[in-house]
Design a protein that fits this description.
- The complex is a heterodimer of chains A (about 150) and B (about 160).
- Chain A is mainly alpha-helical and about 150 residues long.
- Chain A has one domain.
- In chain A, about 85% of the residues lie in helices and about 0% in strands.
- In chain A, helix 1 runs antiparallel to helix 2 and helix 1 packs antiparallel against helix 5.
- Chain A is elongated, with a radius of gyration of 19 Å.
- With about 160 residues, chain B is mainly α.
- Chain B has one domain.
- In chain B, helix 2 packs antiparallel against helix 5.
- Chain B is elongated and about 55 Å long.
- The chains are: A mainly alpha (about 150), B mainly alpha (about 160).
Chain lengths: ~150, ~160
């Protein structure tokens, strides 16, 4: 498993977790008070930061897990050192991006409509964040399938 | 060989290539022209409006919708007309068309993503809606212009390494 693939696996866990936390925090705040008073910027920035750090941490955890498994079973050692991304990684990344780009387009269109209607910035930012997360998650699934089954 | 003769030879080659243009390449040129006109028109309407006026007072929604709507109708209208007028054998899509389509998607999605990230930052800063909408819309227009031009170049041999 290359580092790229490890990061995709980490992404598949981290993105849904981060989204669940963000939306449960801000939507519960939005439900109890007017949207102008909700502090949503700090949770949003935390969500983005935590997602990035979470993916890095996930790669480290997977690598350690692979090392332990290699130590016990005695096989797969060369797999851990397989840490440079190659042409296949790049192709798979591009393939996943191409499949997931509809989410970005739909999200951007939704955000334009929200902005034209004068919706609060909170909704625009959240729509864009959600679109990015959905695109990342869907692209991640496509990429894992490509790694495991070919494309 | 004189300069004129080589230029003439090049021209006749160009003509042969022109005849060999696939349906998708013709469509791409239609969308390239439409998106360039759309971008120029939109900026020509918007820039004079924003100069000297606070962003919150600029009315941009009508021009945005008009440019989008007209562009779609004209682009797809002309493409449909070309499709109906062209002979049957030019209507096949081959492997190359599909690959070039991917190049266009790749370039286009980069600009849509940039527009979306800009809009996310702008809305975090709670900037006026004018800027949020327009970073997204101009991102879309730039995506359309640059992806069609990348595809046009790819059809003529400038295959980019992506």
């Amino acid at each position: 498993m290359t580092v790229e693939e490890r990061s995709v696996w980490a992404m598949l866990v981290v993105i849904p977790t981060a989204m669940t936390v963000y939306f449960s925090v801000v939507l519960s705040r939005a439900a109890s008070m007017p949207i102008e008073e909700v502090s949503w910027v700090v949770p949003l920035l935390w969500t983005i930061g935590a997602t990035i750090l979470g993916i890095i941490a996930g790669v480290i955890v997977i690598t350690i897990g692979m090392a332990i498994r290699a130590e016990i079973t005695g096989e797969g050692k060369e797999d851990i050192e397989d840490d440079r991304s190659d042409v296949r990684d790049k192709e798979i990344e591009r393939y996943g991006e191409a499949r997931a780009q509809h989410f970005t387009s739909i999200g951007a269109t939704a955000a334009i409509v929200l902005a034209m209607c004068g919706a609060h910035q909170f909704w625009i930012a959240s729509a864009l964040l959600l679109a990015g997360a959905l695109g990342g998650f869907y692209g991640g699934i496509i990429r894992i399938l490509a790694y495991r089954r070919g494309f | 060989m004189s300069k004129g003769a080589s230029a003439g030879k090049k021209n006749s080659q160009d003509c042969e290539e022109w005849e060999a243009m696939s349906r998708d390449e013709v469509y791409n040129w239609i969308f390239a022209v439409v998106s360039v006109i759309g971008l120029i028109t939109y900026l020509a309407i918007l820039i004079p409006r924003i100069i000297g006026t606070p962003a919150s007072e600029v009315s941009y929604v009508a021009p945005l919708l008009w440019v989008f709507g007209t562009g779609m109708v004209v682009g797809f209208g002309v493409a449909l007309a070309v499709r109906l007028a062209s002979p049957k054998e030019t209507k096949v899509r081959d492997e190359r068309d599909k690959e070039i389509e991917l190049i266009g998607q790749y370039v286009g999605s980069a600009f849509v993503t940039m527009g979306a990230i800009a809009a996310l930052v702008l809305s975090i800063l709670e900037v006026d809606h004018f800027w949020v909408s327009n970073s997204l819309f101009v991102g879309f227009l730039l995506a359309a212009v640059l992806s069609t031009f990348a595809k046009a170049a790819a059809y003529r041999g400038e295959y980019p390494e992506i």
